């Protein structure tokens, strides 16, 4: 009977695995841990590569607190959508296994890169540190504190950009005590902040900053700032915070390291101060989070893999718009002003044009580039990014330009602000409207109207009132 029961459980597990992984072709094992292994996978339909973490539920449940750690990692990754944070695409479970389909990062760990080069140049170290701070500060903005930042938990992709991973020890707002502080002592000994060791409560943001400082020290110097085989001696060194900072580092790099590796958290530099520091600011371009409206990065739910469309010659670069979507653009149907402080017209503008989509995209790209922004083409949209508040107050700026087809020779162009200053967004829209032949934008309220050139010599454009497309998702409850 026992053997039969085991066989039935095994068969059920195989069926669950097939249901989830039927769309994937599993490959080599990328790594193994206490709870299972990570395998390379290729999505059969798109050819995209992923990493599938396969956890043994029996092992997870046998270790005290391990189930909470897995739940926490899944819940945390569901909330995050940033270029410097590993993405969770899909989760499923059987009676015996838990499957997590993750972004595939094939450049290895930051630890391996440092070990191979002994140490990094200040230029390379600064670029990676800027990305690390962008990713960590984004997490903090979402109420997520990593609490185990170290080079082994920072991955490098094929383009040389970092991806923060392993959120099993992360803390969320519900983990804060009544005093607003965290109280669980966790992390890796060489990277843990002194206040975490004192068991008096600590600020998760400042403790993560300390760990980032240790990572920066290792990148630039090539060894740990605090190290000893004896844990008592190691913790004494961390409490003192007396790191030996080489004089051959640039003065600004030395200054930043001292301010981060300050043992008193009240005197330690914070995220905002790091971002305006002289050494950090050099060649710094803030990385904006993914656009919340993107189907493949929308927050609030465990996501299925998006069927990607290759941009082969002849593929359409627009979405067709049906009558219901067109009706939904009417400002009289827009109720978002009842719920949101920022008006819709302050973050979304639409206009019609008879120009071909390619010409529209090309002109918008030229306008944005000449205005000092960076432009990326992604399927049927342009992503305009940059620093909208100047070098002393860097804030990510993201505007998406998308084209919808109303008919064979009529299109709707939408300019949507996802992040950044509204005044900068208005200036950009003014510039684009001018370059596209729209004479003037009159006002920016809900009753605003615009005029367009009526010349038969050039395509006509009309501004449309717009609404906010709101999508509500329900996070998947991962039951162990």
From TrEMBL:
Its cofactor is Mn(2+). Its EC number is 2.7.11.1. ATP binds at residue 53. GO terms for biological process: signal transduction. It catalyses: L-seryl-[protein] + ATP = O-phospho-L-seryl-[protein] + ADP + H(+); L-threonyl-[protein] + ATP = O-phospho-L-threonyl-[protein] + ADP + H(+). It is an enzyme of class 2 (transferase). Keywords: ATP-binding, Kinase, Manganese, Nucleotide-binding, Serine/threonine-protein kinase, Transferase. PROSITE patterns: NAF, PROTEIN_KINASE_ATP, PROTEIN_KINASE_DOM, PROTEIN_KINASE_ST. Residues 24-280 form the Protein kinase domain. InterPro entries: Kinase-like_dom_sf, NAF/FISL_domain, NAF_dom, Prot_kinase_dom, Protein_kinase_ATP_BS, Ser/Thr_kinase_AS. One of its GO terms (molecular function) is ATP binding. Residues 316-340 form the NAF domain. Belongs to the protein kinase superfamily. CAMK Ser/Thr protein kinase family. SNF1 subfamily. PANTHER family: CALCIUM/CALMODULIN-DEPENDENT PROTEIN KINASE KINASE-RELATED, NON-SPECIFIC SERINE_THREONINE PROTEIN KINASE. CIPK serine-threonine protein kinases interact with CBL proteins. Binding of a CBL protein to the regulatory NAF domain of CIPK protein lead to the activation of the kinase in a calcium-dependent manner. This is non-specific serine/threonine protein kinase. It comes from Hordeum vulgare subsp. vulgare (Domesticated barley).
């Amino acid at each position: 009977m026992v053997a039969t029961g085991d066989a039935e459980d095994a068969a059920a597990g195989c069926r669950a695995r097939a249901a989830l992984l039927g769309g994937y072709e599993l490959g080599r094992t990328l790594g193994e841990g206490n709870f299972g292994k990570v395998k390379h996978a290729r999505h059969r339909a798109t050819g995209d590569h992923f990493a599938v973490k396969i956890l043994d539920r029996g092992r997870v449940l046998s270790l005290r607190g391990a189930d909470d750690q897995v739940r926490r990692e899944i819940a945390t990754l569901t909330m995050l959508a940033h270029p410097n944070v590993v993405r969770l695409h899909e989760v499923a479970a059987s009676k015996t296994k838990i499957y997590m389909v993750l972004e595939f990062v094939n450049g290895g760990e930051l630890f391996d890169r440092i070990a191979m080069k002994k140490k990094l140049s200040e230029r390379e170290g600064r670029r990676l540190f800027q990305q690390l701070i962008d990713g960590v500060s984004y997490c903090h903005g979402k109420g997520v504190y990593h609490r185990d930042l170290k080079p082994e938990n920072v991955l490098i992709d094929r383009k040389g950009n970092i991806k923060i991973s392993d959120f099993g020890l992360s803390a969320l707002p519900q983990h804060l005590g009544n005093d607003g502080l965290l109280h669980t002592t966790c992390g890796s000994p060489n990277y843990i902040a002194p206040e975490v060791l004192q068991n008096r409560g600590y600020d998760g943001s400042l403790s993560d900053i300390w760990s980032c400082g240790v990572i920066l020290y290792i990148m630039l110097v090539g060894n740990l700032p605090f190290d000893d085989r004896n844990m008592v001696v190691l913790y004494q060194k961390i409490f003192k915070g007396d790191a030996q900072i080489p004089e051959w580092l640039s003065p600004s790099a030395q200054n930043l390291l001292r301010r981060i590796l300050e043992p008193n958290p009240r005197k330690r530099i914070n995220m905002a101060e790091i971002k305006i520091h002289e050494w950090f600011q050099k060649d710094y371009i803030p990385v904006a989070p993914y656009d919340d409206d993107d189907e493949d990065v929308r927050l609030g739910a465990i996501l299925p893999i998006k069927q990607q469309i290759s941009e082969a010659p002849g593929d359409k670069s627009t979405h067709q718009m049906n009558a219901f979507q067109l009706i939904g653009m009417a400002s009289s149907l827009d109720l978002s002003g009842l719920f949101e402080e920022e008006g819709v017209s302050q973050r979304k503008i639409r206009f019609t044009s008879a120009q071909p989509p390619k010409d529209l995209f090309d002109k918008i790209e030229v306008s944005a580039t000449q205005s000092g922004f960076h432009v990326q083409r992604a399927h049927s949209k342009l992503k305009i990014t940059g620093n909208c508040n100047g070098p002393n107050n860097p804030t990510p700026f993201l505007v998406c330009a998308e084209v919808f087809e109303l008919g064979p020779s009529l299109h709707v162009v939408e300019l949507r602000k996802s992040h950044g200053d509204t005044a900068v967004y208005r200036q950009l829209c003014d510039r684009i409207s001018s370059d596209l032949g729209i004479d003037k934008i009159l006002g920016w309220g809900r009753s605003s109207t615009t005029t367009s050139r009526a010349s038969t010599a050039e395509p006509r454009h009309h501004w449309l009132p717009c609404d906010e497309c709101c999508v509500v998702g329900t996070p998947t409850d991962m039951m162990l």
